[in-house]
Each structure stands twice: as C-alpha cells, then as structure tokens.
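hi! just following up on the protien thing from before. the input was this:
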Amino acid sequence: MNGRLRVGLMGALVTGLLLVAVVSVLALSGSKSLASTAVVLCINVMLVVSLQSFVGTTGILSFGHAAFMGIGAFTVALFTIPATLKRSQLPSTPPFVRDTTLPWPLAVGLAVLVCAVVAALMGVVLVRMTTSAMVMATFALLITAYTVLLNAVDWTRGSTGIFGVPRSMSPWIAVAVAVVFIVVVRVLGASRLGLEGRAVREDELAAASIGIDIRRNRYLLWVISAALMGAAGGIWALNVLAFDAGQFGFATTFALLAMLVVGGRESVLGAVVGAGVVLLVTELFSRVEQGFRIGGFELPRITGTVQFVLALLIILALIWRPEGIIGRAEIEELVAPLRRWAQGVRVRGNATTAPDIVAEPSMSAGIVLEGRGLSRSFSGVRAVDGIDIQVERGEILGLIGPNGSGKSTLLNLMSGVSAPDAGDVLLNGVVVTSTTVHSRARAGLGRTFQNIRLFEHLSVLDNISAPPRSEAVAGLALLTRLNLADVLAAEAGTLSYGQQRRLEIARALATAPAVILMDEPAAGMNEEESDSLLRDIRNLAAEENCGVIIIDHDLRLIMRLCDRIQVLETGRTIAIGTPEEIAQNAQVRAAYLGDPVGGDE
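and the predicted 3d structure came back as:
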C-alpha cells in the first residue's frame, strides 16, 4: 500500500471515529427522536459521500445521482418486502421478484449491481460530452428516472408508493455502514483513479498531456459513484419503510448539493460536516414550517421554509466561504500531529513503493519524433504551411521565429492538441496523426506549455505522481535534481514562478518520455534563473536520453543550449542548422536575429 492510500485510510478511520462519537451521544441520550436523528445523519453521510466521490473528484456537478438513489431504494424494497405483502400490493411483478425475499445486505448488494449496470450504459454517452453538456445531461437523467419510476406502476405503484420495507437500521448498524462508505470513498480518492480524476478536475489539457485518459477516468468514477449511491439509497429505504417516486426528485438533489456546497465538495470530511449542518437546519426549520407559537402569537404553517433556508445557506456559503466550511482539507490536514505524520508517510511511501506502471523508454538511437509536411489554417490564415521537422533521441532542437511564425501551433500539431489539415506526425517511427493527446503521451511524448499548466491545488508530490507512466522513485529523484525536494507537501499553486516552471518540466519528464516539447520554459525568468534552467535541461535530456524540441525567445539560451536550430517565418521553415550556422545565416539575420547577433561580415 503506497503512502497516499495509507494516509487516506487513516484519515477515513479518524473521520469515522468522529461520526461514531456524534452518533453515540445521540443514541445514548435516551431519546427515541435523537436516536432516529442519528440514523438519518448516518444515511445522509452515505448519500453525500457517494455524490462527493464523483462531484468532488471530477469537479463535474451531477443532478442525476438522486436517480440512482431511487433505483437502489426500489431494488431493495422489491427484494426485502415480505412475499405475502408483495403479492397483494405488487401482483404484476414477475414471480422471481414477487416470491423472493432476501436479507437486506444481499438486497443492497443487488442494488449496487443494478445501479452499476445502468450507470455503465449511460456513461458510454455521458463521458463523450463536454463538461457543461454532461451537467445538463445528468439533470435530464433525474427527470427521466423520475418519470420512469412514476409510471412503472407494476413495480413502484406510481404516486401511491410502496410500503412494507422492513426497518433494519439501528444507530449502530447505520454508523458502521457509514464508516464503511467513508473508508471506501477516501481510499478511492487516494487511489491512482482518484488522483488522476483530481488532475483532470484541475486542468484537462495538462492531464491529457501526461497520459491520462479523461473519458476512461470519468467513466469509472461515474459507475463507482452511481453504485455507491444505489447502496446508500437502498439503506435509506430500510429506514423510511414507505416511499414513492416523488422522493427522488429535485428536492433531494438540492439537499445533497447543499451539503456539499456548505461542507466542502472536494473533501470527504467536508461532505460529512455538510451533512450534519444541513440535517440540523432541516430538523430545526421543518418544525418552523409546521407552524409554531411564540408567546401569545401562533405563526401559521409556511410551506417551503426548509428549501428557502437551504437556498439561503448555499448563497451565504458561496459568498463567504466558496470552498465550504472545510474547504479542500481532510482531517489529517487540520490536526497538526496527523499532518506531520501524513506528510512523512506520503514521502516515504512514494519513495519505497513500486511504480504503478513500469515504463522503460527505448534507448535506440535515431529519429524519435518527426513531422512531415504539416499544415494548419485558422480562418483562412495559414499558421503552419508544409513544415518538416524531426528530432533524434538525445538531441535538443531549438525552434525560433518572430511572433506569429507558427511555433506554438506546430507544437500543438505534434502533441495532438490540434489536428493538421495536411501532413503526418510520426513517434518512434509510428504514424500518430489521428491519435489523441493522452495516447501520444503514453507512447512517449512529453509536453510543457507556454502558460504554466500545473494541477494547482494538488501537492508537488501528487503533481509528479499523476502521470500513469510515472515511476515513484524516479519522480522523487527528478524533484531533487530540480531543487523541489523541500516543497513536496506544498500545493503547486503556492510555489514561486521559477519553481512552477521546474515542476512542470519534472512532471513531463516523469512520464518517461522519448521526446519532450517545451514551449518557452524560460519565459519570465531572469538571467541567473535562465542559466540554471539551461543546465538542468541539458543534463536531464542527456540523462533521460530523450529528444527535446524547445521554443524560447531567449536567443542567448537557445544558442547555448541547442544542438540544432530551426527557424520559422510565416508558417514556413527558412533555415535549419547548428547555432553557428544559424547565427551566420543572412536570411535569418534579416528576418529575425539581426546583425548584432550574427556579427559583421
């Protein structure tokens, strides 16, 4: 078990102990009402952490998870209601349903399976959508599921509802199951799947550029989260005894989203805290909603009070605490002794754990990346016009030219960010023109960007661990060589500009690339920082035996760093050669360098 998983498991257990303490106080109070509230709290925790496992990890808002709650609830009801009662209220169901009664754990397991299958079928379409379209599609899912459940009268009794579900939830069973949910979701978040999901949440293009398959990641998280929601919905049914399709609509979705917004949607601890706060508000104002007496005055029933207060709570949270009460933190980050322990475990665990995927780069010499006749137009303007480019393993090729000459567009064509109108890209001799960004990254193409694209809210260590091809020991060695070993636990967004540049390079190198594309890595650096970076790039290219194509406007750096230089102007190559040849090229001096760089003839 690596460091991330050990910390996630320990944090889950500590969070679970806090929930156990709260439930114990309520259950042992001697009040049946408070004991019932304890069960409701635990079930709310199950529901909201199930939702958080998708929303918090991917950053995609889902309105459709209440649909899986409903599917899970009806599945458990259909297989736990006594057979004699089902024959009277659900006579049209098939015999295998009508005559079968399962123990509640088996029924919940069946709900997990049903929801996973439904989510898997829907996910095939959902993950192909843009983020905003996926959000709207989940809302359509909520409406569709509600309509289907309402009209499937033979199975759900429609608006009349289903009854007779055996009450199986005591405070102690409920809290035990809630702790299991917390552990599962925390371990999921700490796993490679969760880490990659958080990387995608931070920056989709950067995630793809290090080899993360965004669709696959979202698909798996969607299915797992839906299965958890189905289980939570089934357990909810075992506490309410009777319900109808109307209870899985927008009101439930709104309450669950309120818990995430108030507590902190990127944190499991935040989800638990949000569940407690929203339950407290709901319990208090549901009594107000029924009407109450103050002194000699009796206030009338005010329908919708709870929803109004929850909406107000969301607005206040978004204004004063947009990240929620807890923010992104987990329990081990808020308690100093746990924080020190967690930081040590993460570093030691990553330093001693075997790599997730061992990637041995090919050490063969020769051309590693090649572009043949690449062209690309934007609104009729030819940004790249029939360019040929190639770089060998271990070689550093500089790409220079005036602004608008097509340098960054060319890198985008090589890395798969943009598709060429004509021409081909070959990586290790294989044509990859039609492949995706992440598949090229997995095949050995690394990339940094002109505008730094780090996973800002992830730690330095998680940034270097995020690539699927990343090797833990090598990643830490890269951070040490780039003077980042002292900031492993720091969020990437808090680093200085120079440190962020170095981290982006280290992350690209952590993919074990055969070739790496660097777009202005020295931009914004002073001369001393630029010289230091020059030495690091040269040494790392030699040690990793990878080719490098680098764009930079720092001609002093390019002339000292590169083995060859290719000069572009208006989307075409006007010269290519060694730094000495380029410095003496009259066409290059006239177009770009000027006589002071080339010297007088």
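Residues 352-363, 597-601 have pLDDT under 50 and may be disordered.
The chain has 27 helices and twelve strands.
cheers
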